[in-house]
Design goal:
140 residues; alpha+beta; 5 helices; 4 strands; 14% strand; globular
């Protein structure tokens, strides 16, 4: 852990001093929060939400992002934060479900989620999600 912290601190210093950009692929949310300016959350190979780190971490919109962030242990209790459980098992990446890949595990899934993948819905110039909960497509 101390070696990891040293490496992350070195990368952060290089990023700040030299204006470097890094592409990190990780499951470690703490690393994302520490190093990233922008984040893209993926589920089974598809970006489901993207935006500035404060937008996505502070106001997650996609149900998977919400579940992912709710599972991160925090030292300080957050009264507003609720654990979002995921039902079922992770589908096979080799044979993902049709439509939105997340629909078998999503508590808010609708019939349209099983049929097709949603286009991006934007909340700002930098924050968007692929979810029918925020899309006028769900009505059509």
């Amino acid at each position: 852990v101390s070696v990891q912290a040293q490496i992350l601190n070195l990368l952060k210093t290089l990023q700040n001093n030299l204006g470097l950009a890094f592409l990190f692929i990780t499951h470690n949310i703490a690393v994302v929060e520490y190093l990233a300016d922008e984040v893209a959350v993926m589920y089974l190979g598809r970006i489901v939400e993207r935006g500035l780190i404060d937008e996505v971490m502070g106001s997650p919109r996609h149900p998977y992002t919400q579940a992912l962030l709710s599972s991160v242990p925090r030292i300080a209790a957050d009264a507003d934060r609720q654990f979002v459980p995921l039902k079922g098992d992770l589908p096979s990446p080799a044979a993902p479900p049709a439509g939105c890949h997340f629909h078998p595990r999503c508590a808010q899934a609708m019939a349209v989620c099983r049929e097709r993948y949603p286009s991006a819905s934007s909340f700002s110039a930098t924050h968007s999600t692929h979810c029918f909960l925020y899309s006028p497509e769900q009505i059509s």
